[in-house]
Specification:
The protein is an all-alpha fold. It contains two helices and no strands.
């Protein structure tokens, strides 16, 4: 494997990691900011108020995007990783 192929494969893998994590991280950010704003406005400082809704939102988004994540990873491995391993 040449240095160019290695860096191209690494770049593709990192970009796929960004694509897969973006929906979950963005929902966690939005829910966290919303709950933080609610807590600041109402002076309610309950720890479970931040944890439980964020966990439920992350679980829901993961459940919805699970098919996309699986297809993306399988396509990446079939098109990129497996030929590199088999070829050399």
């Amino acid at each position: 494997m040449t240095e160019g192929v290695f860096y191209d494969t690494l770049r593709q893998g990192l970009w796929i990691a960004v694509e897969l994590s973006a929906p979950i991280l963005s929902v966690a950010l939005i829910v966290g900011l919303t709950i933080g704003l609610f807590q600041a406005l109402t002076s309610v400082q309950e720890m479970t108020l931040t944890f439980v809704p964020k966990l439920m939102a992350i679980g829901a988004v993961f459940w919805v995007t699970m098919g996309f994540m699986t297809r993306t990873l399988v396509t990446y491995f079939d098109a990129t990783i497996v030929p590199l391993v088999a070829g050399g």
